[in-house]
Each structure stands twice: as structure tokens, then as C-alpha cells.
Amino acid sequence: MATKRVSNLDVARAAGVSPTTVSHVLTGNRPVSAQAAARVRAAIDELGYRPHELARSLRTQRSLTLGLVVPDITNPFNMHIARGLQQAVLDQGYFVLVTDSAADAGSEHALIDRLLTRVDAIAFSGHYDHPDELRDVLARGMPVVWLGGWERAREGFDTATTDDYGIGVHATEHLIGRGYRRIAFLATREESGPGHRRVQAYRDVCAAKGLPVEPALVLHNEVTKEAGAEGVRTLMGLAEPPDAIIATNDIVALGALSELMREGVDVPGQVALMGVDDIDAASLTTPTLTSIPLNGLAQGRAIGRLLLDRIAGEAAPTDLVFPAADVIQREST
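The line above is the sequence of HTH-type transcriptional repressor CytR; the predicted C-alpha cells follow.
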């Protein structure tokens, strides 16, 4: 049989004070005598009282919840972002509501709309741009951090971005330094955002080194293992296949590696392969996968601290830029 939930009134009766005094002790909004406060805390401990969060939210107009929108919750990098974000805000009494848009524009729009009435701030890591919807969020006074939206900082958004151009430079220079000359790129679907900056860096470095960047060597697709495998089938079907492949992240690289193995292609003897993110699986494959780490945990913590600052009322848009890390070379290159 369920027991009755202990209420504010129960604590007040046990402590011999008014329910208002109990609220003042819990919130610290009004001074309470030391003796009364001690009786209230003793009653709370004895009865096992826990404040009702919904009632507290109605009083404070705060949900004590932050919203995080990601395009793929199964991507380990996004899970690290979520964990770091939660670590940063938990001590302040906040929880993180993680939502998965499945990289669908309509779902991203719907999630932004639903979160508006449920959270105190939003961290948005979308597959598509939603400037109008997010401007509406800002106009309502809700803090927003746009992950990957570096070009939006000048529009009033807080942004958090990895140096994606630097990542593209590091990846391309690594392969050129290892002697590869016909390098392909398995890129994101859209010619915009973080993926576009990585591809642009690849093009710029290849051009500076006098290496060909034929249209057929840059393939735009989803950020999935299946897309990685499909990309390899297309590239290996070229009259002159590449001798190295950069995948936009490790998920795509794992799909590419699986297809290369299925086709009997020697990695790195015939084709070298590298990814980005340095997820745990990168060091567990055969051959192990060369990658560039992003440290989603640290990024999530920084984003959480920024959102807390905004909720506290600090002004001026901030553009967090996380520097490109060095390549972790493994057997695939």
C-alpha cells in the first residue's frame, strides 16, 4: 500500500511553525530565527520530506531543466556532450532533458517548440539551421547555445564550436605526410556547418600541395555507418580509386572500414582511412582507426557553465571555440 507523501504542512505541524516559515527555510528568501530553522530542519530529517519540484517550479517560474537537442543520440560524441552538460549543472540543481531529432528537420523544429515551455535554456546541436525558430526562443528571453553555429555569434546567439577548419587541416596534412596523394572525403550531407568547414580545409590544403580534388572524391551523405559503406563502394568503383579516405566522423569511418574489409581491400596498404571524434571503438577495430579527438565531455561541461551564466543574467554573446586536437595515429594510416 502506497504511503502518503510528506507535505510542507506536515513539516510545519511537526516543527510548530507556519507552512510559510518552512518555505522560507527551504528557499532562503526571508530571514528565519535560528531556533525555528533548526526545528524545521529536524522535522524535515525526521519525516523524510522532499520538496515538490513541480510546485517549486510554479513559484519560481524555473523548471530547473535544460534541454539538449542532438541529431543522433546513439553517436558516442553526443552522449559525451550530454554527460558533460549534466555534470556541469547538477550541483546547481539542474537536470538535462536530452532529445533526439534523428537528423530530421521537422523533428528539430518540433523539439524546439516543445522545449520552449518545459526548460530554462536550450543547447541546440541540429543537423539543419533553424535561425528563425531559435531567434524566437531568444526573443522570449530563454538562453540558447548553438553547437556548431559559429557564424551565428554575431546574431546574438551563444555558440560552441570545434575548430572544424583546423580538424580538416590536421587530417589532410597527416595523410599527405604519410605519403598519400589521392585523398577522398566522406562528408556530411549539407555543404554547410562543421562538415563544410572540414571539407573546405581539405580542399585548401590539397590545392596548396598541388594535389587533385576531383568532384568524385568528395561524397556528401548521411552521418551513418551505412553512408560510410556506401561511400566506399562508390569510391572503389572509380577508374582511379583514392589511396586515402577522410571520414567526417568515426561512425562514418567504421562503416567505411567494414566495407573495405568486406571487399578485401588492405588498410592501410591499398587505402588509408581516418575519422574524427576518437570514440572508444576507434581503438578496438582491426586495424585500429586513426582519428582526431574532440573531447565531448569537456565541451559539454563548458556549454553547461555557459548556460548557467546566461540563466543568472550575464550578458554579451559568447563564441566558445574548442581547438582542433592533434591526430591520434593508429594502424589504419
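Note on the example: The longest strand covers residues 65-70. The chain has three domains: 8-59, 61-163+296-322, 164-283.
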